[in-house]
Amino acid sequence: MKVTLGQTEKLLKENLKFKMFPFSMMLTHLKEIYAKDPSQPVLEKCTADINAFLEKYHSIMAEDYAIIEKM
């Protein structure tokens, strides 16, 4: 699963709860970066970071995938 720019923007603007704590921590960090500079390049970098995380931990993130897919 790969998130789109639109899904990333929603992830960075909404306060969703995820089961996997490291994913939530990463989102908190990315939200801070995006809040300081909500430009297209920053959004693209955040999308790449989220996709890299999801690719690496896909086997243990089934519940969190369900939340993201509904976006």
Q: Can you give a write-up of this model?
A:
The chain is mostly helical and 71 residues long. The protein has one domain. Helix 2 runs antiparallel to helix 3. The longest helix has 17 residues. It is globular, with a radius of gyration of 11 Å. The model has no long low-confidence stretch (mean pLDDT 92).
- Provide the structure class: mainly alpha
Spans of 5+ residues with little confidence (pLDDT < 50)?
Answer: none
Taking the alpha carbons of the first and last residues, their distance comes to 13 Å
Q: Which percent range fits the helix content?
A: over 70%
Largest sheet: none
Evaluate the radius of gyration: 11 Å
Strand content: under 5%
- Count up the domains: 1
Q: What is the molecular shape? A: globular
How many E strands? 0
Name the helix and strand elements from N-terminus to C-terminus, one letter apiece.
Answer: HHHH
Helix count from the secondary structure assignment = 4
Mean pLDDT: 92
Relevant terms:
single chain, 71 residues, mainly alpha, globular
